[in-house]
Amino acid sequence: MDSGTSTGAGENSGNENKSIIVVGAGLAGSLLAVYLAKRGYKVDVYERREDIRTAEIVEGRSINLALSTRGLTALEKAGMGHIGRQLGTPMYGRIIHAQEEDPKLQFQQYGVDPKQHLMSISRTVLNERLITAAEEYPLVKFHFKHRCLKTDFAKTSIQFLNEETGETVTATADVILGSDGAYSSVRAALQKTQYFNFSQYFLDHAYKELTLSPAADGSYQLPSNGLHIWPRENFMLIGLPNLDKSFTITLFMPVKMFESLQTKEDVRRFFSIYFPDALRLMPNVPDQYFANPTGSLVWIKCDPHHKDHVAILGDAAHAMVPFYGQGMNCCFEDVRVLDELLEKYNDDWDQVLPALTATRTKNTDAICQLSYRNYKEMSSHVSHADYLLRKKFDTMMNYFFPASWIPLYSMVTFSNIPYSEVIERSEWQDRVVGKIKTAAPVVALGAASLLALYFPRSRAFVRQALTNLADRL
Amino acid sequence: MDSGTSTGAGENSGNENKSIIVVGAGLAGSLLAVYLAKRGYKVDVYERREDIRTAEIVEGRSINLALSTRGLTALEKAGMGHIGRQLGTPMYGRIIHAQEEDPKLQFQQYGVDPKQHLMSISRTVLNERLITAAEEYPLVKFHFKHRCLKTDFAKTSIQFLNEETGETVTATADVILGSDGAYSSVRAALQKTQYFNFSQYFLDHAYKELTLSPAADGSYQLPSNGLHIWPRENFMLIGLPNLDKSFTITLFMPVKMFESLQTKEDVRRFFSIYFPDALRLMPNVPDQYFANPTGSLVWIKCDPHHKDHVAILGDAAHAMVPFYGQGMNCCFEDVRVLDELLEKYNDDWDQVLPALTATRTKNTDAICQLSYRNYKEMSSHVSHADYLLRKKFDTMMNYFFPASWIPLYSMVTFSNIPYSEVIERSEWQDRVVGKIKTAAPVVALGAASLLALYFPRSRAFVRQALTNLADRL
Q1: Where are the transmembrane segments (chains A, B) (predicted)?
Q2: Which CATH class is domain A19-371?
């Protein structure tokens, strides 16, 4: 086990009499339990579903996720970096599929350093490992099949329905943390209080997950070193490798397009036109299409993230669309930041929770925005010349100014720079690029004139260059 | 009773077997009951509170409202225009109070026609009259003290808790209409369904209502022919006349300012600095300040306004801040538009409800936006020279182009032009004004040059004029 950097198991002896209720044993909730137990809190985690480690069918949500720097940093700080590294398949770039029978795949490296990568990781396996890790602490107890009914802010208590026994139980603690997902019950209670700003916005695009099985010889059917994208302007297919050599393929497209595909023949025809190479590898797509559910994409934001001694973290506070692969990474960052605030304020929750709201609302708003904007980038821009040119330019600038010029994608994915600062820095870079674009023809013109003036023999070349420039303007 | 224009009592014989549940017996709900009964529907209105006509204390919400054209149009169409006209006090303009001991009041006419006016009307009295009017129809039944618990979209049924008996009752109907206010239970159920976009945003300003009693001789203490405003940039006091010769005075200011006034002496000092004339007329303000609650200001919007056979109207669908005096007017317009759609689609609710969403979401979004923007206008602009100049310009333009140039305020208040069209037209007018502002100096310069050229003796005058112009640029 890695060693935690700032917290050791049970080292924080001032908290042993303090109890915390965590609502939701998903990725954020189970990591939260580990962090809190390390600080010496007694932690009770209540989860609506049954224990996913013993469940026959695991409900809902996407199959695999892209773990990157922020997520890994939070795992490492809790001494669990190895989990992220062992369970994932590294993806070093995007692999673009043109709309052809047998496209030549185009690899676009993610980082400025070829070694930088995301890890494609199974949500369920990661979650199971985190629950098990949390359970190893005697201070942590999981209560499955408990549905949250009511939150009482004044008493810091919460009522659950034990769905196995039918009993209603009321639990009280020093602090309640709701990490109960995009449709959070704890947030629903907050929403009924005054001065709670909230919005939920559904995209008119939806998604459907499909499986690309391993080849007959048990190997991957596509290169496994990247995230596959079939960009088709207003819709796209993406593919992430799994450890079992399959790929999880996700179709993102407008709800209306999903509705327009009514028969298996419709689906087969649609794939044969837009994704012919994917159809060849997944001939059973028409069957999968109707067997698998269509998921909606929602963007939720709210402010504050707490009231009294109740706070929300993870998707409960900021569900985002998946186009930046930051959903889980941001949830894990929430937990790490909460831990840093506990450290800073000596576990004084009266200071910690307002500070959590102050820093997380602006940063999670920022990543929600970036994720929304990135749909266009993934589904369309990645195949445009302008985009590739800018990517080259960013790489060059980063080579000369490694600390101050980091491409937007790298700041989000391969750094722990606060998201709101990422937006500011990226807007500054865009302004610089804009100015260069405006200034470049003028500088070129001046240089050409000088050249023509002092080196008469270069005039033919200069004339040609100016003609080219004029054509471009 | 006025005669309804398109619907007569019980005339619509095709609907007699159809039943409708209305949730909420506020202004929108009780008017809705009248309209639906006129179309021949069996209507059950469920209301959480007790009957306000017999209640000793009526909970919550602002005391008086400004009824204007949209509200009156909807009342008239239901044959109840007389209610609006009898119960209100006409207000022909704004009456501005400068920050002085004994300010000279400045009257700013509302309309382009001096006869155009709003009616200051009591919420409670109006609501009582509407409930009584609805109850006159045998088809309408009110159920008070029924709290809405659960809405079932598939069954078009809804569960209530009878708070008198403690019984739970489930009511089923052909259609459920939720007019249960800003904190709507019906909307809360909608919010849990997919593809329901929703946001609630609290202003950092709040409000507190105060009463300015009649004079000792039973007369008004201030002129009653207008809406009084004490604009103080970031906060303000407004006053609306009541039939009993009192005024309802409302203080709007940042929550933090409310919190900073902690003692009666603080309040007295605050009023003596900013509202000295109001304090002289209301010496008991410090007592009232601590006796009366501070209300929050919320902006709620959502899309769609329906699902299956359940829809929401009024504040449930679009709570707005009160700065355009359009809350009630917009609610009443919802009801009138619903009636027009029922007429258009022959009471086919499968067509009516999607059409209601299509038209009302964009129009209610528009008035919510306008209301939000109008805070600056009321609390600040009304006392600025630029604003008064633009008002004069608009009046002049309207004189020449009465149909195409209507000031924004008049379109909102004295017309039934759809709110979204109001915004478009007002933006066009602003663009024209912008162009005139840009062009005016050029035109003036040209005219001055011609003048100087052809009439040498005018040169001194022209020189002076140009110097003045230069000073302004």
Answers
A1: 20-37, 399-419, 439-456
A2: alpha beta
